[in-house]
Amino acid sequence: MSKIKILIADDIEETRNVIKKILSLDSDHFQVVGEACNGEEVLNVIPKVNPDVVLMDINMPILNGLEATERITSEFPKVIVIIMSVQAESEYLKKAMFYGAKEYIIKPFNFDALVSTIKNTYDKYNEKLAKQVVNEEPSYDGKIMTFYSSKGGVGKSVLAVNTAIVLSKEATKKTLLLDLDLQFGDISMLVNQYNKKTILDIVEDAQLNTYENIKPYLYSYNENLDIVFAPRKPESAEYIGKDSVEKIVKILKKHYEVIIIDTGVNFNDSTLHVLDLSHTILFISTMEIVALKNTKLGFGVMQSLGYEKNKVKLIINRFNQNYGISKAEVETAFKDNILAMIPEDDKTVCMSVNKGQPFCDSTKYYKDKVGKAIQVMCKELVK
Ligand SMILES: Nc1ncnc2c1ncn2[C@@H]1O[C@H](COP(=O)(O)OP(=O)(O)OP(=O)(O)O)[C@@H](O)[C@H]1O
Ligand SMILES: [Mg+2]
Q: With a 6 A CB cut-off, is 226 part of the ligand 1 pocket?
């Protein structure tokens, strides 16, 4: 179970230290993520440490606890405020609750009182949230289409981005592009967006129970297309477990008609999970004999995983008649599993990658043979 993240707001340092000490006695359940000595500081610290609960002294300088509570409730509605007060004056406390506090506790308090107040309030509030999840309008059952290959560098990411764009714009499908190449994901580079939030931020900061919680971490590429970027550093991949990926995909499926997933070449638990969930696996290969051989082996693995024949489709990328293997030979080897042959077009693709401007976003993209081929493929995909 994840720990309850707590921010302590009290102008007296000694009080903050006492509370920290009490909470450290139950470090399995609580984590103090920050401190503040006035209401204004609380508001500045919240976005940095994302607390679940703010323990708020009612009387503080600069901005008092009541006003701070009111602002937290409107600016950070997911944060639970518990008021601490020495005055057992019911008027004060009534006001605090009116301003949006979820609970109060009278100082001085002991270990049991503090721990049970936080736990009970947190549980009660989360139960309410869980009910809201159930009530969230069950809009879509998004089709998951996963780009996969058994050899790196064959064009998964380029095709995933451009496919997502065509589906979102031309087929006007509400589309999500999820970069699950957790180590070396480069979708952010392909759309020229750096320093945006990534899946690591979702896993570290967001409660994975509602779309509302995940939404702030999505990058809105166009009206119909949102993107979840991969972490910026390869070492972050280990913090994103299969369970988190599972929860994220489950929530997103309800809010998008299509979910395009880009994967890396390493076959980890998360990849296996999304392959299982996929409606279609778009297996990418080039015309090189090594890539084709590995693709054939990959198809075998998919079959042994029990996937239906129709679920796995081959896309030949960088198709070129002059590379010593003919279209007919590929067709003989893969038969009706071939979905598309995307031509090689170094100039268009390379320029688009280097500029961070997907070629399918150009208004005349269907005039480029590679853009046209993706357009035709997308029509097949939404049939
Ligand atoms: N149809 C194409 N014509 C010409 N060049 C292409 C084409 N498709 C992809 N490329 C080139 O291949 C490079 C690799 O593509 P991409 O990054 O999409 O591969 P990948 O399979 O995602 O690689 P990785 O396994 O490393 O994630 C691109 O930078 C692009 O320059
Ligand atoms: Mg890639």
A: no
